[in-house]
Amino acid sequence: MAFELKSVVPWGRSLEEYQLMFNLTEADLGRRVVSFGDGPAGFNAGMHALGHRVVSLDPIYGFTREALAGRIRETRDEVLAQVTRNRDKFVWTHIRDVADLERIRMGAMDRFLADYDAGRREGRYVPHALPDRTPYADDAFDLGLSSHFLVLYANLGLDFHLQSLGEMLRICREVRIFPLLDLDANESAVLPGLTAHFGRDYALTVEPVAYAFQRDGNRMLRIVKREGTGA
């Protein structure tokens, strides 16, 4: 079945949020980085402006800038209304209120849209849907990131997550995933299965981060290939 843009609710986060969500150090920013399911995040554009290169993978990158901008406009009010109705599920510290949320998210998405056409030409925004195999060689990247996609969408099932994370670990020496909650702000049902499966062959840790918007959502999963092994 062909991927349809109308099935997507685009919502982008900033470079600064990525740094907090993934405990990214200055050294991390200079590594070979690939990010999965970025959507209209400002992360890639922000990194590019600093002289760093990120490859972002998402099926929405098969659509034009105009189509993505239109879909953002169509869904913005719906998302903000949902947040307003469920404001008690969120932590209003890093983001002060719904108006501040709108400013931050729209700023990140505007930055993405301004960078999108050039980024596609430069191979920084690549259409791809997990768990399909990517076009990259084993260990092509030092660090792979998944923001608000894997683990969060537990309804996709454990097999989907095992296959997707397996492909990420094929091309990355290290993977970080944030958050570890599901869409209802509960600990994701797929997390125990993922940690049990990959914990056998990889160095796996759950670590606190300096960012939280969902309540109890201040942890990330870090998976690192062990030195001297194929895993």
How would you concisely characterize the structure shown here?
Helices cover 37% and strands 16% of the residues.
Describe the protein's architecture and organization.
The protein has 7 helices and 7 strands. It is an alpha/beta fold and 231 residues long. The protein has one domain: Vaccinia Virus protein VP39 (Rossmann fold, 3-Layer(aba) Sandwich), CATH 3.40.50. The chain has a 7-stranded mixed sheet with strand order 3-2-1-4-5-7-6, sandwiched between helices. α3 (43-49) packs across α5 (98-121). It is globular. The chain starts with 14 loop residues before the first helix and ends in a 6-residue tail after the last strand. The model has no long low-confidence stretch (mean pLDDT 95).
